[in-house]
Amino acid sequence: MFVHPASGSAASYRALEPFLTSDRPVYAFHSPDIPPGRHASIERIAEDYLAEFLHAAPRTTPVFVGWSFSGPVAVEMARLSESTAAGASGVVLLDSATPEVLAGRTTDLVTEMGGLFGVDLAGTPASSPGELLDRIAEIMAVSSDMAGVTGQDLRPFWDTYRWHQDAFESGWRARPCAAPVLLIRAREETGWDPAPDDLGWSDVFGTAVPVEWAGGTHYTLMENDRLADIARIVERAVEKWSRPDPVTPCLN
User: Fold this and answer.
1) How far apart, in whole angstroms, are the C-alpha atoms of residue 140 and residue 154?
2) Collapsing DSSP states into helix, strand and coil, what is residue 71?
3) Lowest pLDDT segment from 61-65, 144-148, 226-230
4) For residue 177, what are the domain limits?
């Protein structure tokens, strides 16, 4: 069960789905607009999404997957799901940090907005979001089939992203789930320095959280040429978690 990143888009998960070879059903949350009436908090988003998921798939024991902003949402959904009949098989975090580690992230607005829209803004001077949206629109109009797109056209995507980020940054009472967890880090990402490899999750779970590495940065981890690698890591974890624990024979 995949939870969208702060962009609200599940497009990367749709692209990942063909690389997932197991026969487990795949679900993903897609929320490209600011949800009317929904409070911007990790807890509220997790509660609402879990209720929707359990209604759609009441007999499925899910593995929760979160990328970036949605890592805490996935952990909270797993924790809540464990108090239902569905339970939780595990949690996969895709280059996702705790809010405390995020607060020390060494990135800037230019990098953040370029990553969101998949546009190279290298060399672009720092300016306001509105000015950067105009610049991004200019680049997209030339390099893609989006002739005529304007910064104003892109504003709703930025607003949705900021709404989800505000939920992340507004504070979250981190409580671990009992299900196993795996963190997949982006090998080329430098914005987390000097955070620990586990991006703060071992402190939440009270035990060492395993970390695997994949190509790309925080923003390019889920690009098409990396999806097969991500799928292999995810499916290896899911297979491990689905095996029954070995039974120790009783010796008389």
Assistant:
1) 11
2) helix
3) 144-148
4) 2-104+166-242
